[in-house]
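Practice set, problem 2.
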Amino acid sequence: MPNDQSTPGIVAGRLSADQIAKNFGDLHPPLDAHEARVAADRCYFCHDAPCMTACPTSIDIPLFIRQIATGTAEAAAKTIFAQNILGGMCARVCPTETLCEEACVRNEAECEPVQIGRLQRFATDTLMAKGGHPFTRAAATGKRVAVVGAGPAGLACAHRLAMKGHDVTIFDGRKKGGGLNEFGIAAYKAPGNFAQAELDWLLGIGGITVEYGKRLGDGLSLDDLQKGHDAVFLGIGLAGVNALAVSGSHDGLASAVDWISALRQSKGKADVAVGRDVVVIGGGMTAIDAAVQAKLLGAETVTIAYRRDKAAMAASEFEQDLATSKGVRILYNAAPKSVGKEGITLARTSTKGGKLVETGETLTLPADQILRAIGQTLEGAPGVLAIEGGKIAVDATGRTSVAGVWAGGDCATGGEDLTVTAVAEGRDAAEDIHTSLTGGA
C-alpha cells in the first residue's frame, strides 16, 4: 500500500513532490496542430496499408492520417473510434513500435516510421475535448446483456452492444472501472485522470449501467446472470498473481501488480513507498513498468532479473531501452534462487537443448524491496466453462463452451495480452452477440 513503511528501507518521499511530478510527466508529449500536420505529411498513404494489417483493431490508419493532413482531426477520430472505441488510451499505451509503426514502410526509406501513435492521440484528444459522443444508439432491441469486467474488453463490448440498441449492465468487483487502464499500466503512460475521463466519455453512448463492487463468485453467479439476461460477456482479466518459488523469506517481497495499482491510485505519488535497492523479477511489461517507476520515485538502484536471454524477453526492445535509459539495470539469464536479509540470490542460467539450466554460478544483490512480476493467473471463472492453458477457452468469435456466454481480453484464449487486443476481442464478441440476439439482422 502507498503509506506502508513498516519495512526498513522502503519509504515514501525519497524525492520532492515537484520532482516526482516532473518525473511522471507524459512519456510522449502530445502533438500540437502544426506538429500533427507535419507528421501526417510523412505518410505515403499506402494502398495495401501494412500498418493497418498490423493493427489488432484494423483501424484505417492511412485514412485517419490523411484526414489529419487535411485539417479534419475530428473526422480522423471518428475513423479511429469506429474500430477502437478506446483509441485514446491505446494511442498512449499501445506498443506501436512492434505493431503499426514497425510495419510502416517509412522504416525502409528513412529508418523512422510515421508517428502513428501520437497522431492517433492528437485526433482522439481533439474530438474528446469537444465533448459529446460521436455515435448514437440504434433503436432499442429489448435485449439485455451482462458484461462482467469494466476493463478494455468489457468496455469495448458494452459500447458496441449499446450502440446497436441493446441494454447493457456492466459488473465490476472494484470501486471504479477501467480495469488494466486504470490500475495496471505505468502512470507516466497515461498521466492525469485519463482512464476515468475516457470511461465517462464512453458511457455517453447511453444504454449502459455500471454496478461496482460485484464480482463472479462473490455475490454474482453465472447462472443468475444468464437467467436475468439474454447474453453474458466475461472480461474478467487475470486477477491472480503467481507466487515466487524461492527459499527463504523477505519482508520487502511484494506483488508488482499490487504496487503499480497503489501507485496509479495515488494522486501525488510522493506517498508511495519505494526501496533504496529494488529488484524486480520478471521479463514482461509489468516488470518494466514497476522498475521504471521505482527509479522515478527515487530508488537508488533498480535491477530487473530475467531468467532467460534478451531475445526471449516479452517486453519489447523499446521498453527495455526505456528502462535502461532511466537507470534500470537488466540482468538476463538470472533466475531467483533464494531471498534473505542480505537481499536476493540469483542463479545464472543458459539454454541447452532447448531447456533452461543453471550454470552453477550465483550472485547476490542487495535488496530491501523485491517486486515479483512473473505473470498472472485466472481467478473467478465459473467451473462450468472449459479452460485451456489457464484461460477461458473461446472460439474465433469469443464464444465459450457454455451457450449464451462469450469471453474476451486477458482472461480468454487468443492473442497477446494487450489493451488493443482486448478491445478487438470485446468488439468482435459484441458483433457476434448482436448477430445471435437478432437472428442475423
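Problem 2, part (b): a different protein.
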Amino acid sequence: MAELLRIVLFTSLAIHIVLTAICVWRLWRGESAPDRLIGLDLMATLVLAILVLMAQIEQSRLYIDVALALAALSFVGTIALAKYIADQQMF
C-alpha cells in the first residue's frame, strides 16, 4: 500500500509540474494583463500544491510552512495586481 501511495504522489507531482510549465507559457504569451494575472494566480496555486505534495513525499513539515506563507503572499499579490489593472493606480 505504501508503494502505491508513492506512485500516486510522484505521478501527481509530475502532472502538477507539467501544468505549472503550461502556466509559465501562458504568463509569457498572454494577450492581455488579465490573462497574465490569471496565469500567475494559477501558477501560484500549482506551486502551492507542489509544495504540499513534496511535504507528503519527504515527510517534512517545512514545506507546509512555506506553502502557507506562499498562499498568503499570493492572495495579497493577486488582489494588489487586480486593483492596479482595474484602476491604473496602486492606492
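Answer key, part (b): Residues 2-87 form a domain with the Helix Hairpins fold (CATH 1.10.287). The mean pLDDT is 90.
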